[in-house]
From TrEMBL, chains A, B:
The gene is gshR1. The lineage of its organism: Bacteria, Bacillati, Bacillota, Bacilli, Lactobacillales. It comes from Lentilactobacillus kefiri. This is Glutathione reductase. InterPro entries: FAD/NAD-bd_sf (IPR036188), FAD/NAD-binding_dom (IPR023753), FAD/NAD-linked_Rdtase_dimer_sf (IPR016156), Pyr_nuc-diS_OxRdtase (IPR001100), Pyr_nucl-diS_OxRdtase_dimer (IPR004099). Keywords: FAD, Flavoprotein, NAD, Nucleotide-binding. FAD binds at K51, D298. The keyword Cell wall biogenesis/degradation does not apply.
Length: 442, 442
């Protein structure tokens, strides 16, 4: 028997779950189909577990930095303990998320689903029909297509690793590679990071990326730039990565070379939904080429960063759209961050684009001698702020420091609220804090 | 010979220094007279050194909290090292501040100064005459007037203490007492905090204060509430504090019972400047009862919290006023914070005042199980947010957590910018961070 819903959502991640709850508040009937963990990438195998494991790096680095500056004694990451601490948080997520949906009156299906030739959703033995459908199936780690690729592990494996090997290698210098490399290094592993060209973290300010890389090199992380790995082989207990003039034996290899949208096994060919290599193509209403089918979250083909709060925002948009709103989706600034020590964060107009000096003023500061960074003996703290001369507002900012997230969130609010610098300087903020420093940065 | 200036400023602290530089940008002639350290309380013996020493508490507490949750090993505060780390920052401040003034063309006098009977400033052998005068002499620690009071030490002594004694006592449970008690406890001292009634930190939410006190008690700090110390005596190597039914032997006693405005030795009686017990009385233009004499910073009699950013704001106001602006001074929200583990911060309307339920909605959250606090295993994390039902904006917030300053600064911006909650919820903030949690608090 076919079950009929107002909206059927494929994918029970951040976007899918959030939209489902919102639609229930509108008294709509909703089904959510999820073939993996309810809650999706972010809380199960993404942002949240990553940042729990990052606590190991934060604590050990802080103790190292403060050694001789007021702190005696040494600490180390106990990986099994840290993993247990992570699992305490992540293990209940999927059930709790599913139960939350169910108790809100949402039908959940823990099945892999696809559109069949009649345009209905087949979820196991169930057939689901919706007035509207929403694709929110997210992405999965991409695997480099080379001989031996079955020996690769992924970020998902890393975030659930029982023991940290002595020597680990990450292939791909995007934000996932950088973040996991920092965590593994703090946990005591010898870490290699391989990148195919010499522009890792290409979407970030390259001058600050280069300073971050130099710093991580000093700490002992090995960077192998301009390196194409062409084969992985098992040699005894180790894996050997090889390429032209390159050979690296290592214990474990994580492929962190990007993510692939989950569009290939959900029957999109049956319902005329167009995709490209970045995901499902949508218009300004998140509507696909099939007018009854929408898409949101990481599965969407977009130049926007694919981030949890973006997915949440899109879910919020669709909830309003399905409730009658006819506005196009419009985004505020989207800050992006590579968590680590240091963290690298950016929002708004990058300084590399804001080169017209008659229009923009670029203020660059090395903050490492500033009070806030001296007190914790932070070795690296830089900020670049782009100011629009005409409006006298901040329009972009990049921050490299252990506390970059604090500053980037303040800058995000300043940009979105179009606060004039003179108005921000009238703010009285808790002193001394990273936020009160902002008045010296603009 | 009398030296003539546009403006003579008594006090080379945050307010005085800032105003002097601003006036120079207006091409005015300026003198700054300081009898102690240039830079004043904040960078020499206030906020900045305090928060450097607080790093000891932050690091040891973090390691303790994470023990068994991913971190192995123990650390301790090395007080002499920490003090050296502090002095590296504070020692150069006075000279650097004075040199900064001098190189900006400001005349500096390192003398105790007072208004003489002719209404001129006598600074050592110099006589200074100004078109306008500004009193910015700040405050000093109050000393409880009891027998043995010469045995008391002050916050200034604490912030320059070469060795941490085994057993230290603070008299006065205001924010200075709490902050220093936390620092001393982290440094390994047995700590007593004595307060004359049972409402310490009286300007803060008493429910959260009580929870903070309970937490600090569990960590081993001894609180002696409703206790009046009536005498201090030296007995051998120790001091003994005594009162009715109270006797406490201890190694060192810090009087943290408030601060006294520096108004008593600057000849105000010669120039008809009115004071009360809170300081120099001023009108809405920071003008004293003598129209040519102004006052700003901690020395002003006010119900506002006496804080560094308030002093800076007042200096900015006077710079504009002296440049022809005729606006009254108007303050944005003033956040206040007791730094510590946990820190307690508050801004805007307190929940104890916003009791009209038809007008205000109070949202109270225990955040300790939330992701951001789980990851660092923070034991105590609470927030109270007051929302105006009519305007749908945040009008007040109180936060108790190790990271209260981060949240309180976000709330301060929301209050001042009168951001509607629906607008804040459209913000995309770096995730997961304390700032992105705010959308769950409102």
């Amino acid at each position: 028997m076919t079950k009929q819903y107002d909206v059927v959502i494929l994918g029970g991640g951040v976007a899918g779950g959030s939209l489902a709850h919102s639609l229930r508040r509108q008294k709509k009937t909703v089904a959510v189909v999820e073939d993996n963990l309810f809650g999706g990438t972010c809380p199960n195998r993404g942002c949240d577990p990553k940042k729990i494991l990052l606590a190991g790096l934060e604590v050990t680095q802080l103790v190292d930095d403060m050694q001789g500056n007021g702190i005696s004694g040494k600490v180390s990451v106990n990986w099994p303990d840290l993993m247990r601490h992570k699992r305490q948080y992540t293990n209940p997520i999927s059930n709790a998320t599913q139960n939350g949906l169910i108790s809100d009156g949402i039908d959940t299906y823990h099945e892999h689903a696809h559109f069949n030739q009649d345009g209905l959703i087949e979820a196991g033995s169930d057939l689901l029909s919706g007035d509207k459908y929403v694709i929110a199936t997210g992405q999965r780690p991409s695997i480099l297509d080379i001989p031996g690729k079955e020996l690769f592990k992924t970020s998902t494996d890393f975030l659930n690793l029982d023991q940290m090997p002595s020597d680990v290698t990450f292939i791909g210098g995007g934000y996932i590679g950088f973040e996991l490399a920092g965590i593994a290094h703090a946990a005591g592993a010898k870490v290699h990071l391989i990148h195919h060209n010499d522009h890792p973290l290409k979407q970030f300010d390259q001058q600050l990326v280069s300073q971050a890389v130099d710093h991580l090199k000093k700490l002992g992380i090995d960077f192998h730039m301009d390196t194409d790995v062409k084969e992985v082989t098992q040699v005894g207990d180790q894996l050997v990565l090889s390429g032209d003039d390159f050979r690296l034996p290592t214990d474990m290899v994580f492929c962190t070379a990007g993510r692939t949208p989950n569009v290939d096994t959900i029957g999109l060919e049956n319902v005329n939904v167009k995709t490209d290599k970045h995901g499902v193509v949508v218009n300004d209403y998140l509507q696909t080429s099939n007018p009854n089918i929408f898409a949101m979250g990481d599965v969407v083909s977009t130049k926007r960063p694919k981030l949890t709060p973006v997915a949440g925002f899109e879910a919020g948009y669709l909830a309003k759209y399905f409730n009658g709103s006819t506005d196009k989706i419009q985004f505020k600034s989207i800050p992006t961050i590579v968590f680590g020590q240091p963290a690298l964060a950016q929002v708004g107009l990058p300084s590399s684009i804001a080169t017209d000096e008659s229009r923009y003023m670029l203020i660059t500061n090395d903050m490492s001698a500033w009070y806030s960074y001296h007190r914790l003996n932070e070795p690296l703290a830089k900020a670049k702020v782009v100011i629009d001369r005409d409006t006298e507002t901040v329009v972009g900012a990049t921050v490299l420091s252990n506390h970059a997230d604090y500053l980037i969130n303040i800058f995000t609010l300043m940009i979105d609220q179009q606060m004039k610098i003179s108005d921000f300087n009238k703010e009285i903020l808790a002193y001394p804090t990273f936020a009160s420093d902002v008045q010296y940065l603009i």
